[in-house]
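for the writeup, i need someone to sanity check this before i put it in the appendix. the sequnce is what the collaborator sent (i think, or maybe the updated version? ugh). structure was predicted straight from it, no edits. if anything looks off just tell me and ill rerun, i have time this weekend
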Amino acid sequence: MLHFCRPATVEFATSGSVLATVMPELVIGQTELPSSYSYRSQSRVRIEIAKNHGEAELEQARMRAEQTVVDAEAEHRKHLLIAEAEGKAKALLGEGESTRVALEGDAQATVLRKQIESYGDPRLYAVSMVSKHLAQNWVGRTTLMQLPLRSTRQSAARRDRQGIAVGRGSRRVGRRSS
């Protein structure tokens, strides 16, 4: 597997591990440095390999950091879009509800206007409504005239037994003195 890091060098790797960095003039497939390289040259090559590994790891770390930033920005944007969509949905629901209430009120006002016009005079309509209201409130109530006479007599007798002075012309209220 070949990895190109810089135009002047080529990395030669087998099964995932880099064996050597060689000059382009060398034959690819050669696993060891030629004997013409001195110990000092081999050290430089190893240093170059380590340097290349470090640069590759640094670049990978930068790419991971950039990807993390992109992911975070995308997540933030997603939350903003969701919040904006929810806000618009609530606003539309509110507008729909207000439109419904307004239409309902307009319909009731139209019906009331037509009822008033049917009487010819708004005062007649008002008198009609007041009389209807009073009639509904008094239906089912008993008056003093409808009470049995006996209950009135029993109440008077009970008061008389307790000694409470009740009657016409009586100014004193309370117990009779003996």
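Residues 2-107 form one domain. The beta strands are 2-6, 9-14, 17-22.
thx in advance!!
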